[in-house]
Amino acid sequence: MQRPRPRHVALVPAAGSGNRMQSGRPKQYLEVLGRPLIRHALETLCAAPDIDRVYVVLSVGDQEWDSHDWSDLAPRLVSLFCGGASRADSVLNGLRAIRDEMADSDWVLVHDAARPCLAPWHLERLLSLSDDEVGGLLAVPVADTLKRDDGHGHSVETVARERLWQAQTPQMFRYIMLRRALERARGVTDEASAIEAAGLRPRLVEGDASNLKVTYPLDLHMAEWILANRAR
Ligand code: CTP
Ligand code: MG
To answer: What pLDDT is stored for residue 186 in this prediction?
Structure first.
């Protein structure tokens, strides 16, 4: 008997408080081109033909999500109010919340709410991994010369940038593999580290710098510029 095609779902952790933005408000709701920052990536994910469902993980006490109109993204978009203390906890809580809807071999694409410039071509590149056993992540080879400091602002070492990549999201792994890896490797800052800790090797899929994470105030301006200047 032929096995059913594994599904692809997106899981978007959006339960952070955006402290480094210093805006006094979670950054996922800051306005970017007239819309909440998080809406840009959600629209791209919900419009992707190969993504069946998009789950957003919000903090338990989220005050803002329900004040926006998301009806145009229904029924693909589903909100889960189960965020945790760290990003990894939010992702794991989300994976647990959807367990009844997932087959072990289904793919989960975890994408930061804070990366609004996700484009269809980024997704296409990552989805080309669907025949892979392990999965992988979007990433960009490091371009700059890297320095290690002495803890007091002086350079002590130049770190060779060969074979170094900057990890981005989405990161795409099989549902059960990812859940088990995150259950064991607590405190990781991305899914790929949990998979690596399980002894597996996520594939690095070359993306580009336009898929930046909004962390500091300047990033918000750069994201807005990228979205405004991108041919849609
Ligand atoms: N995130 C989450 N749950 C947490 C912390 C972070 O779902 N407990 C999410 C954020 O909402 C964001 C993504 O993980 O979409 C990446 O995290 P980061 O850029 O660090 O966002 P914040 O934690 O909100 O920002 P900061 O670290 O500056 O407070
Ligand atoms: Mg954070």
So the answer is: 78
Q: Which amino acid is at 144?
A: D
Which residue segments constitute the domains of the chain, with CATH numbers given?
Answer: 8-137+169-231 (3.90.550.10)
Q: Residues with Cβ within 6 A of ligand 1?
A: 13-20, 27-28, 57, 83-87, 90, 112-114, 213, 215
Nearest Cα neighbor of 61 from 76, 37, 81, 31 is: 81
Pocket test for ligand 1, best of 62, 87, 90 (most atoms within 8 A of CB): 87
Looking at residue 231, its pLDDT comes to 64
- Ligand 1 probe mutation, 57, 112, 182, most atoms within 8 A of CB: 112
Q: What is the pLDDT of residues 87-97, one digit of tens each?
A: 999 999 999 99
Q: Which ligand is nearest to the CA of 86?
A: 1
Half-sphere exposure of 150 (CA within 13 A, CB side): 5
pTM of the model: 0.97
User: What does each C-alpha distance from 152 to 127, 145, 148, 155, 157 come to in angstroms?
Assistant: 43, 19, 11, 9, 13
Residues 6 or more apart whose CB falls under 8 angstroms from that of 74 comprise none
- pLDDT tens digit sequence for 111-162: 999 999 999 999 999 999 999 999 999 999 999 999 999 999 999 999 999 9
Q: How many angstroms separate the CA atoms of 139 and 180, rounded?
A: 23
